[in-house]
Amino acid sequence: MAYSPPSLALRPHRISYRQQLPSALVISKHFHLSLFADTLSPPVNVTIKAVKANSALVTWDIPEGDPVIGFAITQQKKDVRMLRFIQEVNTTTRSCALWDLEEETDYIVHVQSISMFGTSPQSEPLRFRTPKEAETQASKNKDEVTMEEVGQTNQLRAGELIIIVVVLIMWAGVIALFCRQYDIIKDNEPNNNKDKAKTSSECSTPEHPSGGLLRSKV
Prior knowledge:
By secondary structure, this protein is α+β, with helices and mostly antiparallel strands. It has two domains: 37-131, Immunoglobulin-like (Sandwich); 132-195. The protein contains two helices and eight strands. The protein has helices at 17-39, 133-204, and strands at residues 44-49, 56-61, 70-77, 83-89, 95-98, 106-115, 118-119, 126-129. A hairpin with a 6-residue loop joins strand 1 (44-49) and strand 2 (56-61). The chain is elongated, with a radius of gyration of 51 Å. The model is unreliable at 6-37 (pLDDT under 50).
């Protein structure tokens, strides 16, 4: 019986790129987004304005060249773990109002920039304290009184200016009248001189009562 070697069935190796390609793409995409997110700078010049008992206004600046499309704000009470997160996109605003704050409370605020590729690191922490409601009302009343005083001062200045203008107009009228009277008196002086000369000539030539001149007898 002839020996026949066993037949070797060659099975081709199947390489599935369907499972490897998406993984590579995901890694590449994740690396791409992480790269842009890491290069996005945090907001600068973060300040707090118009601090009241129940509200405040946060403002900031964006480094030049950053493709920012929105912002995110983290608000936290001091010594309290609970956070309040505010996010807004499709905007170029550089400020955000904080509402529903508690009076006489310390807060910590962080600001982040949002781009198409991710979120920037947080800004430097900004700490502020809300005042009492009574202090806010007192400050408001003080501002109103100050504005009222400014209005009264402006009215007094306007009245003084009106009085000065009236006095100047009166003085101008008096000076004009004096100049006019002076011109009239100056124009009448030649006529007065002529009348005086005529009167003196008549007095120097005596006349006879009958109308003739007196003649001396020889």
